[in-house]
Amino acid sequence: MSRADNLKSAERVSLKYGRESLNINLDNSAGSEKIEWKDISPPESSPVKDVDGEIREKLRNPAGTQALNEMTEPGDKIVIVVSDFTRLVYRTSYFLPFIVEELNRGGASDGDIEILIASGMHRPASEEEKREIVGEEIYSRIAVENHDCKAGDLVHLGESSRGTMIKVNRKAFEADLLILTGGINYHIIAGFGGGRKSIAPGISGYNTIQQNHSLALQNKDRVFPGKLDENPVALDMKDIAEKLAPDFIFNTVVDGSKNFLGFYAGELNEAFRRGTEKAVDSFGISLKSPFDLVLCSTGGHPKDGQLYQSVKALFNAGLACRKGGHIVLVSSCSEGIGPPEFKEWFDAGGPDEIEDKLRKNFTMTGYVALRTSQINSQNSVHLISELDPEDVQGMGMKPVQEPENIIDRILADGKKRDDADIKKACVMPQAAMTFPVR
């Protein structure tokens, strides 16, 4: 975990915006008070140098299990669970051939192996998307199937300790060797992505996913990125995953440029734990106190395609900002708001009204809307995007028409209203990949 650094003397900063960059003036011509600017970026982590060698090393010397090639015999039914199209950043297509290679070394034929896309409640991947997820070579050799959370043949495994009815994919249940893959990073309700999440929500039934995710409204202070041990959602996911009992996992940690920072393989909980430690070291930023103003970018294309995707950056910026402070979010949103129902949740009203509606019919989209509304109600959020200004206002944010001098205008408006002074500010160039910890 790193600390915030002083921003080198600069009158403006360049932030990623879609496929381009946007220049924002930082100088304060609106008043005589000098603002102290800090840079909050992910700590510098060295990418893995010998990627191929490191992947093979982890598969042959994993944590808490036999080497992968020693876990199979000819004729075994093998299922490899992979992340869906929304998580291409973890580069499944790169490491998957190495997993298949080890299985082949152990005596498995390509026909013994099936790849299962952990779609959760997302739409199924098209054939073209399947090809992109697993890579051309593997797509041409091995069967690739989408998980269907509403399939009629899901297997019932009883209930979790929190009362969640557990139903999972039948092929995963019937496999002689079940392998999970994915990527580890901070997650809004699960604490961390990766590991157990490949099963719940990845290959679980619709009602299982809904029941699990609805736990996010219980003990709300414990449902938080980076929290696992007291987080009811994360602990329930752990229960569900252990009921299915996968044999082996292979998880990655990647940076904002898709460089591999580490590989974690072996037993479900041990390999996942090691990966979360790397994620904390790679993306956590220690802050002594919050800032009055946070200027942040989602990180440009493809992370800022939709507002719905950009909420992760907004949430992280909210952790760095004091209540009543200002957040300026730079996110092109060139593909629009996101799921149609996301905007509709804001029609219910403020955070209390959205939460009341959510308790009657929980959806993850609704929960993201709730967290967004909470941040918007606690801070003044200014959005620099391509969205219709009326849509932005309807979701509780302020559209920015002339972004270059937005900081100066915020300071000038605050001075007119006699708002609290803005003395401490920060820039978060990669807010979606930066997690402030206080």
From TrEMBL:
Residues 17-220 form the LarA-like N-terminal domain. One of its GO terms (molecular function) is lactate racemase activity. Pfam families: Lar_N (PF09861), LarA_C (PF21113). InterPro entries: LarA-like (IPR048068), LarA-like_C (IPR043166), LarA-like_N (IPR018657), LarA_C (IPR048520), Ni_dep_LarA (IPR047926). Residues 290-420 form the Lactate racemase C-terminal domain. NCBIfam families: Ni_dep_LarA. This is Nickel-dependent lactate racemase. It comes from Halarsenatibacter silvermanii. The lineage of its organism: Bacteria, Bacillati, Bacillota, Clostridia, Halanaerobiales.
